[in-house]
Design goal:
Blueprint lengths: L12 H9 L4 E5 L5 H10 L3 E5 L3 H8 L10 H9 L3 E4 L10 E4 L14 H13 L4 E5 L7 H11 L9 E5 L18 E5 L2 H12 L5 E4 L2 H32 L3 H8 L23 H11 L5 H26 L9 E5 L14 H11 L3 E5 L5 E4 L2 E4 L5 H5 L3 E4 L8 H7 L3 E3 L12 E3 L1
Parallel strand pairs: 1-2, 1-4, 2-3, 4-5, 5-6, 7-8, 9-10, 9-13, 13-14, 14-15
Antiparallel strand pairs: 6-7, 11-12
The structure holds ligand SAJ.
């Protein structure tokens, strides 16, 4: 690892660019979650001295001990970069002093009334303002509406008395981390980068160019902020469309999954999306809403996103009605039925529960009196409000004792043969039982 910049070395924008290009810059990453940790370790493995800042001391101590809590970052990688000194996890903001570049990777959830919650960005910006030593490039990665970098981040940084374009530069670069994706990772996923001004763009492109194969430079942070929202609104709207088509197909007696498979044979002008029990995750249910919120602020009509939200949010209730149909096969009503749910995370082969459709499904089933158990090898304990459940083993007994097995998340590891052999009734919301023709399967 090359020696990090000591604060005594002369620091100028030219030197900053040079240090970035030669991999000797001090790079800080604020927020060490599923976005920040892979980025921090990627920079560290390229030889940069990386300060990883997080307010969660448990995260910092796990990393210091060489342990990872992010599915896609092996503990060996953490141990390697922490052991070599290339990566310095900390909760001490003073460690950010002297950084040539600081990347903000903090959450942007909703507030209680479903408005953008920018409090994490504000807090990170205030932390930076308190230790900012010029010259420093600050890059925002957290997804937010177009204008956030200029309208929110810059004023907070300038509250330190430092001046934009003199003491600091800013850019936006959307995260494109897809948890559990075995094919795409930081290095081989093209990175969109938009600097506020040419120097910011040059610096940010050089920074990301040192770790990713392809940098896609755009003219401004707004362009980059908008690109991200286009990507995820595209997904949300198309998932809602195929969910609505699935409801129509069922009435038409059409197997939607087979129809989609046929449509996907078209080599151009089509991209398959699949119906499901609803839309979970930290991106798709949330990012488009940030755009809709800003559009409404500007007085723009934006009906697509609201309609897509309504349709996607209605799917869990539709699934509960299918479950009611399934338990009726045993002559039961939901209020007296036992339902075994397979998979509660928001998508297959990951452990993330955020906005998972299973949350709404469990809540509604319990509201209607059903007795719930679940099996999810990735989620050993399910806690929500006053509900606490433990994942049960998938055995002939646990399957047979349920009036219905409801598959919400199609983890690859789930033994479908065992379920098909022992279930009284199955509700399949993911076409996981496509190859099983038994008549006790109700499909979305
Ligand atoms: N879903 C469907 N039908 C589909 C696709 C997804 O019902 O055809 C559901 C999933 O089950 C899940 C939710 O939608 O509950 C979101 O799924 P997702 O595949 O979009 O996965 P995410 O939320 O992890 O989205 C991420 C996003 N990555 C970033 O924002 C950086 C998204 O832009 C990626 O396109 C997506 O991963 C991906 O392609 O896997």
């Amino acid at each position: 690892m090359k020696s990090p910049t000591s604060s005594s070395q002369t620091r100028s924008w030219e030197n900053t660019l040079e240090r970035i290009k030669t991999g000797t810059a001090r790079v800080a990453v604020i927020g060490l979650g599923y976005v920040g940790l892979p980025l921090a370790t990627a920079f560290a493995r390229k030889g940069f001295h990386v300060i990883g800042f997080d307010v969660d001391s448990e995260k910092v101590s796990a990393l210091t001990d060489g342990r990872s809590y992010v599915l896609d970052v092996p503990s060996d990688t953490v141990a390697e970069v922490v052991g070599s000194g290339a990566f310095e996890p900390t909760s001490d903001a003073q460690a950010l002093r002297g950084a040539d570049a600081i990347v903000i990777c903090v959450p942007t959830p909703f507030t209680v009334d479903r408005a953008p919650d920018l409090s994490y960005i504000e807090s990170a910006a205030k932390t930076i303002a308190s230790v900012l030593e010029p010259p420093c490039l600050i890059v925002l990665e957290s997804t937010s509406y177009p204008g956030t970098t200029e309208e929110l981040l810059v004023p907070i940084l300038e509250s330190s008395g430092r001046k934009l374009h003199e003491d600091f530069e800013v850019a936006f670069s959307p995260e494109r981390v897809d948890p559990g994706n075995k094919r795409y990772h930081i290095e081989n996923t093209p990175k969109v980068v938009g600097g506020l001004g040419n120097r910011a763009g040059d610096l940010a492109c050089a920074l990301y160019g040192s770790v990713v194969d392809k940098v896609v430079r755009v003219d401004s942070p707004r362009d980059a902020e908008m690109a991200k929202l286009i990507e995820n609104t595209f997904r949300q709207v198309n998932i809602a469309l195929v969910n609505e088509l699935a409801l129509i197909a069922k009435r038409l007696g059409v197997n939607i999954w087979k129809a989609i498979e046929a449509a996907a044979s078209k080599p151009f002008g089509y991209m398959p999306f699949y119906p499901g029990p609803g839309v979970g995750g930290h991106c798709i249910p949330i990012d488009p809403h940030y755009l809709a919120w800003k559009a409404r602020e500007l007085g723009c009509e934006i009906s697509f996103i609201e309609l897509a939200e309504r349709i996607n949010q209605s799917m869990p209730i539709h699934v509960v009605r299918l479950t009611e149909e399934a338990v009726a096969m045993s002559g039961k009503k939901l209020a007296e039925a036992k339902v075994l749910i397979l998979g509660v995370s928001y998508k297959r082969d990951i452990d993330d529960l955020r906005e998972s459709p299973a949350l709404a499904i469990i809540e509604q089933l319990q509201k209607e009196g059903a007795e719930i158990s679940y099996h999810d090898p990735y989620v050993p304990v399910y806690r929500r409000g006053n509900i606490e459940l433990k994942s049960v083993d998938l055995t002939p007994d646990t399957i047979e004792s349920a009036d219905c097995v409801l598959l919400v998340t199609d983890h690859s590891i789930i033994d479908k043969d065992l379920v098909a052999r022992h279930a009284k009734a199955i509700v399949d919301t993911r076409n996981a039982f496509a190859n099983y023709q038994q008549d006790n399967i109700i499909r979305l």
